[in-house]
Amino acid sequence: MNDRDTLYRAVLENPDDDTLRLVYADALEEGGDSRRAAFVRAHVELARVPEYEPEAVQAKYHNQKKKADGGRWITELPPLPEGLSWARDPFRRGLPGAIQSRDGATFVAHADDLFAQYPIESLELRGPRAPDMAALAACGWLSRLRSLSLVEGVGRSIRLLLDSPYFDRLTDLHLGAQLTTPEAVTALVRSRMFDQLTALSVREDRQGGGSLVGALARLAKPPRLKKLDLSSNRVTDAALAPLLASAAMETVEELNLSDNNLGAEGLETLAGAALPNLRSLNLIRTRPTGAGVYALTGASFFPELRSLGLGGNNLPPAAAERLAQAGRTSLRILGLDGNRIGGGGAAALAGGENLSGLLVLDLAEAGIDDDGADALAQTARLGGLLYLNLYGNTLTATAAARLRKRFGDRVFL
After folding, report:
1. Rounded to two decimals, what is the model's pTM?
2. Are strands 84-86 and 95-96 parallel, antiparallel or unpaired?
């Protein structure tokens, strides 16, 4: 066993220790594998900070060539036993740590070998079966998991799993669209592990967002959630209002309401909420209209937002103008892709004093013409951009050349 192997074994025994991972990266570089070392370091850095922090943006966008060839190593990962596979994004903090299992029995059968070879911290169960729950709940390796995803959702048998004494590290839970029974929701919110969650993602297909949205709103002592993902939940304005006013939202920093038909009324309800810690908000394909965007810019939390996603909403140029003319903002990431922003909207964004702190501006397929491109290329206010996405806009070669001259490899055409 060489020093690198010894360090890897140390990581397996101490999976939460990022310092060991960085030392392991140093060993990789000393052994001549500088690209993989850079990949590990970048992933560790990304895990430490929110997506809108400059370090994270730098690692994700500007240094893509150094950190994003994880695809090369995905193909080099060894095959797993039948019924198991690597997750779509298998790496966690630079090392293979995320797997999928067709059911709980398959995971339990191979858990000893898996954790002996890899620092697994994320498990996705595609088909959690009721007969597997007792054995799965008794598996001591659950103590290594930070993230659990039950893709298809489960019924009342979830109680056995969620009350497992081994979920010491679990902070991130995703439940799929079949979690629709009141019994399952009751089991979830009453479970021991529910109180320790900091990230919750739920998919329900019942009108109004399903029973969990209501259960969260009624909790007197909810978990201190930092991330709440309610995208694709058929959440309505009526269901959203009590949730936004509840104690469950007091600590939320990242909120995803994408793919819910909220409309302008939903945005107005959202804008009226007191969300003191909200920093990231995704409203992709929520049909807010210009009126909804106008209401949003007047929200008490809007000046503190760092990331705002409004893609795919068919918004007119006036929406971009409103964002550019709003009062003080702290936005670093702004997504307006898939809208009708046009040249006038792009020019408004380029001239907005309040947007001078942007690090990422996504205007893909937003109807930007040469005039809008020239406004972006000439403004002095967007000098801090690390990534400008203009893919799918009809621009002449001359306009594209001016953009590349101004932004170099920071512009994607």
Report:
1. 0.92
2. unpaired
